[in-house]
Structures are given as structure tokens and as C-alpha cells.
Design goal:
Oligomer: heterodimer
Number of strands of chain A: 11
Number of helices of chain B: 0
Strand content of chain A: over 45%
Helix content of chain A: under 10%
Number of helices of chain A: 0
Largest sheet of chain B: 6 strands, mixed
Structural class of chain B: mainly beta
Largest interface: A-B, 25 and 21 residues
Shape of chain A: globular
Number of strands of chain B: 11
Largest sheet of chain A: 7 strands, mixed
Chain lengths: 112, 112
């Protein structure tokens, strides 16, 4: 089944403890991105990647890092999480310019 | 900067009604527009993708239209069912960009 897989689905962590949220797609898509969803603010893009080793900042990149070493994987790294990064995170991918986006099931992160 | 507005924010209807969800965007220079469905605490499911050159797309009981010049899209749901209850999100991909700009969604409740 074609899909975008995120792990973990739920995560509670403490301030300052580094964490990684993984994202993997099995559709050979070139483009991948990360979004966060917050009440009243909607979905906002954090980072995106046009291809392997090519990444760029979205609208809210502060406090996050990404890497794209393989086409299928696009992990989101929080080096020193803070409570304001408590959110619902989504990974998405698409095939080419004319195609729509496929989203993962989301990762609910709580930073205490 | 592109802004996307969805009206109404919430809608409650009895089963069987035909309904229309509205999406407006401020910059008509878009590449495409995508409608998503989000169930509580879940990921985004793509419903319809409309390219900027298209006027409408249909899938089952769903029909989405696009009027790029006026900055509007509508999602028409025929013969609504309780299973249609969800939040519906409109997302615009601005021309020349890879990001999606989302509206804040319309929360739909269909009562039996």
C-alpha cells in the first residue's frame, strides 16, 4: 500500500531532551515536507526537501532540523525541545509538480 | 503572502442534505488546489486535486470547483451521511512554490 509512515504516533518528552520523528514513504516521491498543526493556527510548513541532500526552510523552521540522506526517509529532529513545540506533526510527500500531496497519520508530541 | 479562508468554520446538517463548503484565497497565481478531510486526531486524507487550468473535479458524491480569477473554490457534498462528519481543509499551492498554504478548515457534523 502506498503510504507515508511516521513514527512514533505519540510522544511525551521533557524539555531539552533531543528527539527524532521519523518519516518514510514507499512511493519513490522526490518531494517531502514537514508540517505542524496547532489550534487556531492551522497547518504550517516547517521544512521541505526537493530531493536527496536538498532541504529548505518553510514558514516555521526555528528549533527544528531535517536531513534527507535517502529518497524515502525525511526525519525531523528537535535538538532541544521546548514546550512551545508541543503540537501535531505531519509528514507529506508528492511525486512531481502536477501531483497532490500524501500525508502521514501524524505524530502528537507533548513537551513538558 | 497567500492567505486561505474557509467559510463556514463549522456546519451542522441532518443526514441527506446537499451542502457546500467554501474556500477563498487572496492570490490567484496558484499551481493547484487540494481538498483534504481530517478525522479527529487523525491524518489528512486527500479528496480532490484541481490543477489551475481545470474548473472542477469529481469523485463519487464530491465535486470541487475552482474559479482562479475570483480566488474561490467550493466543495460540494451530495446526499451527506454521518460518515462524512470530519474537518475539511482547503490547501493552495502558490505558483512557483512547493509549499501548501492551508485554510483553517470547516468542521462538518452530519446528524442521523
Amino acid at each position: 500500500e502506498a503510504q507515508v509512515t511516521q513514527n512514533p504516533r505519540y510522544l511525551i518528552t521533557v524539555t531539552g531532551k533531543k528527539l527524532t520523528v521519523t518519516c518514510s514513504q514507499n512511493m519513490n516521491h522526490e518531494y517531502m515536507s514537514w508540517y505542524r498543526q496547532d489550534p487556531g493556527l492551522g497547518l504550517r510548513q516547517i521544512y521541505y526537501s526537493m530531493n536527496v541532500e536538498v532541504t529548505d526552510k518553510g514558514d516555521v523552521p526555528e528549533g527544528y532540523k531535517v536531513s534527507r540522506k535517502e529518497k524515502r526517509n525525511f526525519p525531523l529532529i528537535l535538538e532541544s525541545p521546548s514546550p512551545n513545540q508541543t503540537s501535531l506533526y505531519f509528514c507529506a510527500s508528492r511525486e512531481g509538480s502536477h501531483y497532490g500531496y500524501t500525508f502521514g497519520s501524524g505524530t502528537r508530541l507533548t513537551v513538558v | 503572502k497567500q492567505e486561505v479562508t474557509q467559510i463556514p468554520a463549522a456546519l451542522s446538517v441532518p443526514e441527506g442534505e446537499n451542502l457546500v463548503l467554501n474556500c477563498s484565497f487572496t492570490d490567484s497565481a496558484i499551481y493547484n488546489l487540494q481538498w483534504f478531510r481530517q478525522d479527529p486526531g487523525k491524518g489528512l486524507t486527500s479528496l480532490l486535486l484541481i490543477q489551475s487550468s481545470q474548473r472542477e473535479q469529481t469523485s463519487g458524491r464530491l465535486n470541487a470547483s475552482l474559479d482562479k480569477s475570483s480566488g474561490r473554490s467550493t466543495l460540494y457534498i451530495a446526499a451527506s451521511q454521518p460518515g462524512d462528519s470530519a474537518t475539511y481543509l482547503c490547501a493552495v499551492r502558490p505558483a512557483g512554490y512547493s509549499t501548501l498554504t492551508f485554510g483553517k478548515g470547516t468542521m462538518l457534523l452530519v446528524s442521523p
